[in-house]
Specification:
Layout: H1 6-28, H2 30-37, H3 42-55, H4 60-74, H5 76-96, H6 100-103, H7 106-136, H8 142-170, H9 173-189, H10 192-199, H11 218-243, H12 245-251, H13 257-285, H14 287-312, H15 315-342, H16 349-379, H17 384-400, H18 407-411
Helix pairs in contact: 1-5, 1-7, 1-8, 1-10, 2-3, 2-9, 3-16, 4-5, 4-7, 4-16, 5-7, 5-9, 5-10, 7-8, 7-16, 8-9, 8-13, 11-15, 11-16, 11-17, 12-13, 13-14, 13-15, 14-15, 14-17
């Protein structure tokens, strides 16, 4: 295909941003959603809410497999249109789910249903989205183009945090619990028709069928998949541990709601900037060389960072810790994802990447926040998130040495 237009790039990355906005909005409003849709005391309703957030990860591998295989057979464009339409259903459904007081057990049941739809849609988005960006990129700019996927995903996080901060500042606590969080979902739903219209303008990047991978060549693909699961699992644990900062600040550090949402703004802003920088660095210096130092820094300094914020417990300390951990996580994780993506043959890229990513997210992302909550409860230590992140990233860094960096990928050739 010819070089993609700015409109086409916007169609891919804007849709990606909205899908991630939708998925993580639930996480940021987990406390309020728990109070509205789930029965029990505050701790029980929070755990049920976090558990339902995790349920959304169960359907992601199925979405990655089915929509990803559809993208490898019929094209990246129709697959991305399908995933985006399904995410719109999830957005509207969550926003309109009645409260537990009004509908009883139908409320949590509907929440589970719409989380499954959201998970299926997002699982099917990642493979076609990253494949299109990689295949459409000009020579020497594949890292930067693929980093747009991560940057816009983090932009979705930033937008969710900004919406949460504004709503928590403008509404009374009772209003925020009852219906304020619903506005966040409805704002996303309003963008869906425009996103669908934009995605219909895309050119197709699916390679010709003659490039199909023979069954005898699947061994290296499976080896890449195994290593990729560990690498993306590590990045996922780091990511969702950081996204837990909102709930962590409210329930463990006992900070105000608007301060907690302020931390999510820091997380989103730093992540967006670092994603693009990491993509540029990966094009210039290679994937492995770029990820090594930041991931080593995360391994060595995650626990001291949580020790600092738990001891000081001021907004400045929370924001500084969030910014630092976000920086070293993103500058390492963006080239790590690119390393895995480039190692997969083009004709199975969307399906394989979607499935690897979705499985890593489901296993490690879906359990991360409930597990962190329980680890803090069991140990009584506010440092538990830091230890969890340290162990995960150490495993991920080791797994990067199991994947051979493609000379073509390192130079950005197509």
């Amino acid at each position: 295909m010819t070089a993609p237009t700015r409109r086409q790039i916007a169609a891919v990355v804007a849709g990606n941003a909205l899908e991630f906005y939708d998925f993580v909005t639930y996480s940021f409003f987990a406390v309020q959603i728990g109070r509205t849709l789930f029965p029990g005391d505050p701790e029980q309703s929070l755990m049920l809410s976090l558990g339902t957030f995790g349920i959304g990860f169960l359907s992601r591998p199925l979405g990655g497999l089915l929509i990803g295989r559809y993208a490898d057979r019929k094209g990246r464009k129709p697959a991305m249109i399908l995933s985006f339409a399904l995410m719109g259903v999830g957005l509207v459904g969550m926003a309109l789910t009645p409260s537990f007081a009004a509908a009883g057990m139908a409320a949590p049941a509907l929440a589970v249903l719409f989380r499954l739809i959201q998970g299926f849609a997002l699982g099917g988005e990642v493979g076609p989205n990253t494949a299109w960006l990689l295949e459409a990129a000009p020579p020497g700019r594949r890292g930067l183009f693929v980093s747009l996927h991560m940057a816009t995903a983090d932009l979705g996080v930033l937008a969710a945090g900004l919406v949460g901060l504004l709503l928590s500042s403008l509404l009374a606590p009772a209003q925020f619990d009852a219906w304020g969080w619903r506005i966040a979902f409805l704002l996303g739903a309003a963008i869906v028709p425009f996103g669908l219209a934009l995605r219909r303008t895309l050119d197709e990047t699916l390679p010709p069928a003659k490039e199909a991978v023979a069954s005898a060549d699947l061994g290296p693909v499976l080896a890449t998949a195994a290593a990729g699961m560990i690498i993306l699992g590590a990045a996922t644990i780091a990511n969702y541990t950081l996204q837990y900062i909102n709930t962590y600040a409210q329930t463990t550090l006992h900070m105000a709601v608007n301060v907690a949402f302020g931390a999510t703004l820091v997380l989103g802003a730093v992540s967006v900037a670092c994603d693009l920088a990491a993509g540029w660095l990966a094009d210039r210096f290679g994937r492995k060389r770029t990820l090594l130092l930041p991931w080593l820094a995360l391994i060595l300094l995650a626990v001291p960072a949580y020790l600092f914020v738990s001891a000081v417990r001021t907004p400045a300390a929370l924001f500084a810790t969030t910014a630092f951990l976000s920086l070293v996580h993103i500058v390492g994780s963006t080239p790590a994802m690119l390393l895995v993506l480039e190692a997969i043959p083009a004709r199975v890229r969307a399906g394989a990447m979607g499935l690897i990513y979705a499985c890593a997210i489901s296993i490690f992302g879906g359990t991360a926040q409930p597990l962190i909550r329980k680890m803090i409860e069991w140990t009584g230590s506010p440092l538990a998130p830091g230890w969890y992140m340290t162990i995960a990233v150490a495993c991920g860094l080791a797994a990067t040495f199991l994947i051979r960096e493609s000379p073509r990928g390192a130079r950005g050739e197509r």
